Amino acid sequence: MYQYHCLNPIADVGLNLFNDKYKKTEELTEAEALLVRSASVHDVEFPEGLRAIARAGAGVNNIPLEKCAEAGIVVFNTPGANANGVKELVLAGLFLAARDIAGGVEWVKSMGADPEIARMAEKHKNRFAGGEIKGKKLGVIGLGAIGVKVANAAAHLGMEVHGYDPYISVKAAWNLSRNVRHTSAVEDIYRECDYITLHIPLLDSTKKMVNKEAFAQMKDGVVLLNFSRDSLVDDEALLAAISGKKVRRYVTDFPNPAVAGQEGCLVIPHLGASTEESENNCAVMAVEQLKDYLEHGTIKNSVNYPNCDLGICQGAVRIALLHRNHPGMISKYSTVMGNAGINVTNLTNKSRGEYAYALLDLETDVTEEALAQLRGIEGVLKVRVIKP
Ligand SMILES: NC(=O)c1ccc[n+]([C@@H]2O[C@H](COP(=O)([O-])OP(=O)(O)OC[C@H]3O[C@@H](n4cnc5c(N)ncnc54)[C@H](O)[C@@H]3O)[C@@H](O)[C@H]2O)c1
To answer: Is the pLDDT of residue 388 over 90?
Structure first.
């Protein structure tokens, strides 16, 4: 029986996938698997028996990835599960920026039940008028799960779409409409585009990427959309760019004290993934990944260990080894098995940065002595026995 704990509410459609091999526990100390959404686990003390954390969502800055890797805890996220939800809100952001819809709605509200409202609307509506997005240039920075969907949808709406992503995956490239023009210099996006939308992760290299220098290269009256993370934009430089009329509107999904209520800023209370469909997709993906890991050792969509799949165990038992990516590790654990007289029928080893992962299917059951020897190999962080 595997025990799991939820630090945030997780959609039932996902939790219902846990069958009778699983039990929900209210005690983190008993859990082998942990499900989270946005709760921070930076200060959480992980129990010895914890094997995996699944983040039902994309961003993982609420999880200490290296600390988890060192403890042999595999962290998963659910990339792409909320991409359509975010895409739809970005499209709404484009329309909200094209005309002052929000300002217009506020004005109507302020008029209340004034009998003259229809006449007054005709008189005042020009204040809220704008342009159409059709024919305008949209720059999409980051062509991953969300960026590709935004780029394709905007191209369908008649925008001239330019995309920038120096690390674009093959899958994303296959999914990208051929109407999207790819550029290899972000400066082209800054220089050319009427609307710029960010779909990149927050990393040391992308923090405050949209700064004073970036704004200086943009067209006057540009619209910037940020549905990724607020620290991608330098707020001080942004506010200066708004007051200098460089930026006509900043549409963001991330309220913070610098931008909330500011002229030119349209701030949404982080609704990108807040759709029933996104939450369901994330929960289903998170639970399926946890089950596959606990029952088969398969790693898919991890953010701190390599992806690894050996299918269903074909032997008497499967060993999962989480270890440092050091030379000679494969020969060390193969030697332990050989000395114990245990035949390895199937084996795979994958690495990612500092860490590596191996799955070994054994013809016969593993002995306690062999397990102790595996655990004693320098660089081995965790050893797990999976019975088929
Ligand atoms: N508003 C919300 O509620 C919400 C929901 C989900 C995700 N997000 C944010 O959206 C971001 C993107 O999500 P995704 O699912 O598309 O992620 P993804 O990993 O599928 O795509 C990110 C893309 O950014 C590219 N990239 C990385 N560094 C880059 C750089 N310096 N310049 C250009 N491209 C770069 C990568 O190559 C990748 O293709 C996430 O990191 C997250 O912060 C927000």
So the answer is: no
